[in-house]
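Tutorial, part two.
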Amino acid sequence: MKTIFIAGHSGMFGSALIRKLLGNPDCRIITRSRDELDLKNQAEVTRLFKNYSIDQVYLAAAKVGGIHANNSYPANFIYENLMIELNLINGAHLANIKDVLFLGSSCIYPKDCPQPMSEDLLLSGVLEPTNEPYAIAKIAGIKLCESFNRQYGYNYRSIMPTNLYGPGDNFNLNNSHVIPGLIRKFHDAHTNNEPKVIVWGTGEPKREFLHVDDLAKASIFIMNLETEKYKSAISSRNSHINIGYGEEISIKDLAFKIKEIVGFEGEIEWDSSKPDGAKRKLMDNSLINGLGWNPSIDLNDGIKRTYEWFKTNKEKLRL
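Running the prediction step on this input gives:
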């Protein structure tokens, strides 16, 4: 039986991991709430790892948010994410835990990155200014895993997902990502019979979206991949693997898709004074596809599932 610690178990990705792992009788899952464990506190993290015989660590904890949140709180984003990564990865090392999976983000790639973005384009150009502090923290996490592997022969792996959505997402309009933000806006407008919904930007940028349940499956797949097979796959690239859906959609088309799913019949007004972010962010998923993993939840079905989850759980959410 493997003892698995999931850092960030109550978040969208952590919750999806637990849903997938709970069905495995060979797994013993350890979690801690924020009240029980401050991941920014090195002593607390080190103590937890020394008190348990842990086989695997999924590093799903992070401070996350959309363009508005990244623009408003850059110091919080770089400091908190660096502290969480440093404490968990070094803590795993001190406890001689050899298997760690680090969750990164597609924002690690340069602003004007060739599309689709392959793993070897990391550090090849200037980052998107709106989320640079968060991206730098995530790049540091990749390099931490890579460095511990080189020096100590560990099996620390990094995955870079594209834009995520799904059950457990953040629907707070001040710091949500695009899909939950649009779901919330269209739902509120539909409920209140409002004539229009204002959406940030021009709607022209294109994005790729992955359902969080697909990411959970991919993460477990990568964590348990044979060591030699993993090393062989990344030998000519950087030490991380992209995970995406493989298709992109414009924000404008996405907005109309969500509008239809929610049933809002008013107009969409585009606020071009607000930032668009990068023009395109499409992942090159050939590496993980070649290893034998492919996503299974299409965008239309995934948004419908997410909206149903939101309607069922909105009374419990901090909106």
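The longest strand covers residues 155-161. In part three we will examine how such features are distributed along the chain.
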